[in-house]
Design brief:
It comes from Accipiter nisus (Eurasian sparrowhawk). The protein is mostly helical. The chain is built from 31 helices and five strands. Strands 1-5-4-3-2 form a five-stranded antiparallel β-sheet, with no helix packed on it.
């Protein structure tokens, strides 16, 4: 074979030039030089190629009894005319690349019909005459990882091509898959088989034109029983955690490959009206995965399993978003989510979370070590912490949405939430030294604030649980007594699911910036729209509770402040000189929760948290927060740039300086450095200045310095005013975008709810 001919064929296929010669000519160029001994099965065990250019790893201890290694004469005959600069391995890699490329071109509508027909003829000859599928299966067993990977990709492409174009399942590949998976654990070389099946499913899901249900069922149905048996075998019957302590072992490679396959099966489930058993087994037998997560397996595998479990609990949300189907109309999904939720909550109540050892180092791109001079302290893996937390919250949400009475769910809910709160505290001990948490509802924003989609999934889950409890309570008794009402309110705070607290703590973290909320509403990556609609409906009916919680944030004796505040007996004016010398360092905070007027529980942290911090200067107050202003300083869009974005409040003057900084390839971040001064009717002033972002090496992202007149005290209803003002600004921003047809969907229902809240606030709390 002339290597120049193969190279020319590659160039022609790459640019889409029609292949002029006969199909047999090109078939001979693509025919792989893989020899098999008589009587050997398709798996070929482990195949070795001539070791040229150091391209293949040495395996001196491997069993070579059944492996055929081409002799020098065979190799010279097969590659007689190959340029000396090309070794057989490189030629084979070029052939595999060409096969993969031609399959992609044959499926593309941009390529001329005659050219695509030519490619199809070549594939038919390769499969029927050259037995290319058997040779690719043999290559899967190569110790050369690149050859094995490319063979898997090419085989998956050809199997999928046959399914799509001929509506036929490749018998050679099916036989190989059945024999390999059913032979486990006697046959431990299963990773390559799993790779191929996973790639076929992913290619199928990426096809936007194909009706997937038919061919997906055609492919998976023969493998259904074998896949369920393999699930039981690899995760339970033959599982030994000692084999999985290294991510480079064959056992770990098999397990990681199987987790990838389970993720593909989960994603493909939505395509079938009645899912197969292999698509449901991960829900019905999730206890196997839960045991693995708390075992001594390598952290990489543990993390992969936890992230997969998170995808399982979020599957319903994705299905509803994609198809708009009603959950109760899908009996199999209902049963599966019940089984998953029961299994998760059962182990959580048995202290399962405490047995999970999370990494003590933060995750870094490309490694696990801190960059010298970065100043970042290692800690618990926040990604895994959030994922585990969300798994528990979503399990609670689903379990209790399908419960009939309040009594049957209260005990289990309180038990699960207490376990979760202990889990959070145990893994954030370092953070609590600087930011003590005294109110349980603040944990939600602290844990999830760095991941928007997880944040609103968690908030929505807790909101739905609250609404379920509230409905069951009022169904049982039309009018609750004052004591029952107080007990109910106490429990919502004690178990960290009071929706008003959660929402207000989040607003604090984003410095009451309405543009951050607008970003979430416009984004399709979060469920914030669904959450906000549900919460605004609750707010309209539960206004008095919202006001009570706001008062709890503001009251002097029952201070319900954020972790960025410092309590003082008297707040006085900071001079210009002290402003210039102010340091943005975290100070100890005093945080006590809940309005005393309603006899709520007062939550405290470690000893010393309740000490009042005295300032070195009696006339100064520095309020520091290293995280709450990040969202407001990095709003994705400057929504105030429209032509009629006039000042929307009396007595407010704002000076806005905008800088544009590139943010990957998605656009620009408008970082706003805002200096605002507010003046009320009594000429009492409150000035807020946003100082520059942190300098290199500083641990503080931003510093908010607040000053008040020495003769006046900040009004008690600060939290109520700020939160309502934020919602009003959000309403006006949405209205402006709607008038210009710039809002991505019809926000009429949302605007109606926001207007209703504004009307209630003005009627109940006239200014």
């Amino acid at each position: 074979m002339e290597i120049s001919l193969l190279q020319q064929m590659y160039k022609d296929v790459l640019v889409g030039i029609p292949l002029a010669k006969e199909s047999h000519h090109y078939t001979s160029l693509l025919n792989l030089c893989v020899e098999q001994s008589p009587g050997r099965d398709e798996s070929c065990n482990r195949m070795h190629l001539p070791s040229t250019n150091g391209g293949i790893r040495s395996h001196q201890d491997a069993d070579m009894s059944n492996v055929v290694v081409p002799t020098t004469a065979d190799t010279s005959n097969s590659f007689a005319n190959v340029n000396s600069s090309f070794c057989p391995r490189e030629v084979m890699l070029l052939q595999l690349t060409l096969i993969k490329m031609m399959v992609a071109k044959a499926e593309s509508q941009e390529i001329e019909f005659n050219t695509r027909q030519k490619y199809c003829e070549i594939f038919v000859l390769l499969l029927k005459e050259a037995k290319i599928d058997s040779k690719l299966i043999c290559l899967l067993g190569s110790y050369d990882q690149l050859l094995s990977h490319m063979a898997s990709k090419s085989l998956a492409s050809l199997v999928y091509f046959q399914l799509k174009e001929e509506n036929a399942l490749n018998v050679t590949w099916l036989t190989f898959s059945l024999k390999t998976l059913s032979g486990f654990p006697a046959n431990t070389q299963v990773a390559e088989c799993l790779w191929t099946l996973t790639t076929i499913i992913k290619d199928m899901l990426k096809d936007e034109v194909l009706t997937k249900a038919g061919i997906l069922k055609k492919m998976l149905a023969p493998l259904d029983a074998v896949l369920e048996g393999f699930y039981n075998s690899i995760l339970f019957h033959h599982f030994d955690s000692h084999h999985y302590t290294s991510p480079y072992s064959e056992a770990a490679n098999n397990l990681i490959s199987f987790i990838d396959l389970l993720e593909a099966l989960l994603a493909s489930r939505i395509e079938l009206e009645l899912p197969l058993r292999c698509q449901r087994v991960l829900f019905l037998k999730v206890s196997y995965i839960l045991k693995l997560i708390s075992s001594s397996i390598h952290y990489l595998i543990k993390k992969k399993l936890i992230m997969f479990l998170k995808k399982c609990v979020l599957y319903k949300s994705r299905e509803d978003a994609n198809s708009g189907s009603l959950f109760l109309q899908n009996p199999s999904l209902y049963e599966d989510m019940i089984a998953l939720s029961n299994a998760v909550l059962q182990v959580v109540n048995l202290a399962w979370l405490n047995r999970i050892l999370l990494s003590e180092k933060a995750s870094y791109f490309g490694g696990s070590e801190t960059v010298p001079g970065d100043g970042t302290q290692g800690g618990t893996d926040q990604t895994v912490l959030r994922a585990l937390s969300l798994v528990v919250l979503k399990a609670l949400e689903f379990k209790f949405q399908n419960s009939a009475t309040e009594a049957e769910i209260r005990g289990e809910f309180q038990s699960s939430m207490s376990q979760l709160l202990l889990f959070w505290r145990s893994h954030l001990k370092a953070s609590l030294q600087f930011h003590p948490v005294v109110h349980h509802c603040e944990w939600v924003s602290l844990i999830f604030i760095e991941q928007d989609d997880d944040m609103w999934e968690a908030a929505k889950a807790l909101l739905l649980i609250y609404l379920k409890f509230d409905r069951l309570l009022h169904d049982a008794a039309d009018n609750l007594s004052q004591k029952e009402e107080e007990t109910w309110n106490f429990l919502t705070h004690a178990s960290a699911y009071n929706p008003h607290c959660i929402f207000l703590f989040f607003l604090e973290k984003i410095a009451f910036d309405s543009t951050v909320l607008l970003d979430f509403l416009i984004s399709s990556e979060t469920c914030f729209l669904e959450y906000l609609v549900r919460y605004l409906k609750l707010l309209s009916k539960d206004w008095h509770q919202f006001v009570d919680v706001c008062n709890g944030f503001d009251t002097k004796d029952g201070t319900f402040q954020s972790i960025s505040s410092v309590k003082q007996e008297k707040q006085s004016c900071m001079t210009d000189e002290s402003l210039q010398n102010a340091c943005c360092e975290p100070e100890p905070q005093t945080l006590v929760a809940l309005a005393a007027s309603h006899s709520y529980l007062v939550f405290t942290t470690e000893q010393g948290d309740n000490e009042v911090v005295e300032s070195n200067q009696s006339n100064s107050l520095i309020c520091t927060d290293s995280t709450s202003l990040l969202g407001s300083l990095q709003s994705l869009v400057n929504y105030d740039s429209s032509e009629d974005s006039e000042l929307e409040s009396d007595g407010k003057e704002c000076l806005v300086n905008t800088k544009q900084v590139p943010l990957n390839n998605e656009g620009e971040v408008r970082i706003r450095e805002t200096v605002c001064s507010y003046t009320d009717d009594k000429q009492n002033t409150l000035k807020c200045e946003v100082l520059p972002l942190k300098q290199k090496g500083s641990n503080t992202l931003s510093c908010l310095t607040c000053t008040a007149s020495s003769d006046n005290v900040i009004p008690l209803r600060t939290m109520l005013y700020k939160s309502i003002k934020c919602l009003e600004e959000l309403q006006k921003a949405i209205s402006r975008l709607q008038r210009r047809n710039l809002f991505p969907y019809n926000p009429s229902a949302l605007l109606k709810l926001l207007s209703q809240v504004e009307k209630i606030s003005k009627n109940v709390n006239p200014q």
